[in-house]
Design brief:
The protein is an alpha/beta fold. The chain is built from ten helices and eight strands. It has an eight-stranded mixed β-sheet with strand order 1-2-4-3-5-6-7-8, sandwiched between helices. Strand 5, helix 7 and strand 6 (about 195-200) form a beta-alpha-beta unit. The longest helix has 18 residues, at about 270-285. The protein is globular, with a radius of gyration of 19 Å. It starts with 8 loop residues before the first helix and ends with a helix. The relative contact order is 0.12.
């Protein structure tokens, strides 16, 4: 193939349906072949829909401005990133990964958060399953086996651990992407301590739980993400009725996971940069 294949929303939807909804890769490739028109095009398109571990980090792991450390606490593993030159305690941000687990990209996002003047903790929510595997498809399958209530409990345990460290203040936010965005929403409905949450294209929480939210929420959505976006207006209404502090931003013309620079089919730099600026501003406003 000499020309780069065109990626459609239907192809992205097929990939997103692959796991954990349907772990049968053969069925996925058959569906993708039908959408692409040939097996050859499908084979070329499939890697573009997945994240690429070969993509360079925006903030390198050995960046001298950052101190990065693997940690363990309460049966969980995680990664902490903080500014190398600041000794004072800083506000904390829990960074919640996509359905691929705690991979190199999520660690990179944690370092980006640290460069903005926060202590970032990226927990591995697959710790109960032995930790994030190298194989992306296996990670996506394991994510579907996790218990939602336990995920929330693990998020709260991560907050408690972070605030117990001398380098973190007693003021913590959370940012999550895709699966992690949905967890930020659920976490916010249950946590009395979470001060601010930013959910990127995350599933909305049960609406009956919205009155329990204490955090100020910033909700980023992709304009082409029909499945997730179907719940926006009901969530907006519930947040408004409950008198919550929130902002909803929809980025027109972009795909689900537009912030993930390791996914060629989804990444949109303009939308990602705009959303990132708003995310940092949100934390600087509410994590005081």
């Amino acid at each position: 193939m000499s020309e780069k294949p065109v990626i459609t929303q239907a192809m992205i939807d097929a990939y997103d349906d692959f796991t954990p909804r349907n772990p049968d890769r053969r069925a996925f490739m058959e569906r993708l072949t039908a959408l692409c028109g040939s097996a050859a095009v499908a084979v070329a398109v499939a890697p573009l829909l997945a994240a690429s571990p070969a993509k360079a980090a925006i903030v390198p792991e050995d960046d001298a401005r950052i101190t990065g450390t693997d940690v363990s606490y309460g049966g969980l593993k995680g990664y902490v990133a903080r500014p190398a030159t600041i000794s004072a305690a800083l506000p904390g941000v829990i960074v919640i990964h996509e359905n691929r687990g705690l991979n190199a990209h999520t660690r990179d996002v944690a370092r980006r958060i640290a460069l903005e003047g926060f202590v970032a903790l990226a927990p591995d929510f697959l710790s109960p399953k032995g930790g994030t595997p190298a194989n992306e498809d296996e990670a996506r399958n394991l994510i579907g086996q996790l218990d939602p209530a336990q995920n929330v409990a693990n998020a709260e345990a991560s907050l408690e651990w972070l605030e117990s460290q001398g380098f973190a203040r007693q003021t913590t936010g959370a940012v999550g992407f895709c699966w992690g965005g949905g967890l930020v929403n659920r976490f916010a409905t249950k946590s009395a301590k979470l001060k601010a949450g930013v959910a990127y294209y995350g599933a909305q929480p049960p609406l009956e739980d919205v009155p329990g939210i204490k955090a100020a929420l910033l909700l980023h959505y992709a304009g082409q993400d029909e499945r997730i976006n179907a719940g926006i207006e009901a969530y907006r209404a519930a947040l408004t009725a409950a008198g919550k502090t929130f902002d909803i931003e929809v980025y027109e013309g972009v795909q689900h996971a537009f912030n993930n620079d390791t996914s060629e089919a989804r990444y949109n730099k303009a939308a990602a940069d705009l959303a990132w600026g708003r995310t940092v501003g949100w934390f600087k406003k509410y994590l005081v």
